Amino acid sequence: MKKNLETICIHGGWKAGKGEPQQLPIYQSTTFKYETSEQMARLFDLEDEGYFYTRLANPTNDAVARKIAALEGGVGAVLTSSGQAANFYAIFNICSAGDHFITSNAIYGGTYNLFGVTMKKLGIECTFVDPEWDDERIEREFRPNTKCFFGETISNPGGKVFDIERFALMAHRHGVPLVVDNTFATPINCRPFEWGCDIVTHSTTKYMDGHATQVGGCIVDSGNFDWEAHAERFPGLTTPDDSYHGLVYTKAFGRAAYCTKLVSQLMRDLGSIPAPQNSFLLNLGLETLHLRMKQHCSNAQQVAEWLEKNEQVSWVNYCGLPSNKYYALGQKYLPNGSCGVIAFGLKGTREDAIRFMDNLDFISIVTHVADARTCVLHPASHTHRQLSDEQLREAGIAPDLVRLSVGIENVDDIIADLDQAIRKM
Ligand SMILES: *Cc1c(COP(=O)(O)O)cnc(C)c1O
Predict the structure, then answer these.
(1) Against a cut of 0.70, is the pTM above it?
(2) Alpha carbons 16 and 21: distance in angstroms, whole number
């Protein structure tokens, strides 16, 4: 039976049989037992399916991966130990030393470093493009060794909305898949596969968990990209893997080729799996994702509108505001709401912004977003504190920028806390 997202949030991935636990069990075990040597041998010869070692597969992790795959409408998903690992694996699964990929420059800082610094050391080159450039200018960056295009549905912390359909068409014109980090929107507010995206990634640390309990990530494959049609570009998927019985992933696994390669090669060798205990916590978060996203968005909309009218506030960036540059794209891709993260500036100096934050009552100062609790971060005095005002502007961060992640408390209380902190500033 085809189910709606709210039902998948609750029931996806795990179905209890007769006398089995109603809630997803935590299989906190490294390994799984067999009765005979023959049974174990058949697993290694790929003649039989079954669990044997948690680095390769674990029932708790698999159930949560199935739920996220169903929410995104994909054919398969793989959980990772962090969002960073998810973005790395998503790219590294189709890029090797000597290859190249293109990314939007409106992406999370951690991903920016991963792509621009660390992957470069592995011999993988990345070109950063401004999604606001016209098609012709961006398409000039495609090379014969380009393997994918990357973007974020809603960028962290810039709040820019990525034109998924436009970039899916562009990537496909050049025979490569589009990879989208859907962390901030979540599948409740946007399902990138419906717009032609091929692979979705998540930091499940954020809204999917929603309670700041675990760091995790996920990669979801739509199963739609035709690797065989571009076989020479993706030899890892379309030629025999000597480290895996000489199997050709696309031939042996069809639409499951990408995820199977990711697990049987990258997880096997690099091993960034989540603990089953963490997947259990993530699953509890997923059970209420649809309810929380609604409240995050409705609260953030009201807070953004209130900030926009406040005398002490110099600017507000939230794509739900009709005055916002990304309002139209937001209406197209996120008609039911975007997310709870707002960026705004306060009139005054860096010190005024610091005083504002110190005046807050229950709104907390943390290096985290997308939590049930409302929280703030001031990059100029926290994550980027070593930079001068001028260096900050060069990095695209206004010295007065406050990142506000609106939680699911009562919105009047959130506004009252902001109001008293601004007044005392
Ligand atoms: C936080 C974040 C990441 C990194 O995820 P971690 O779970 O912290 O490793 C990647 N992409 C986006 C959009 C994020 O917000």
Answers:
(1) yes
(2) 6
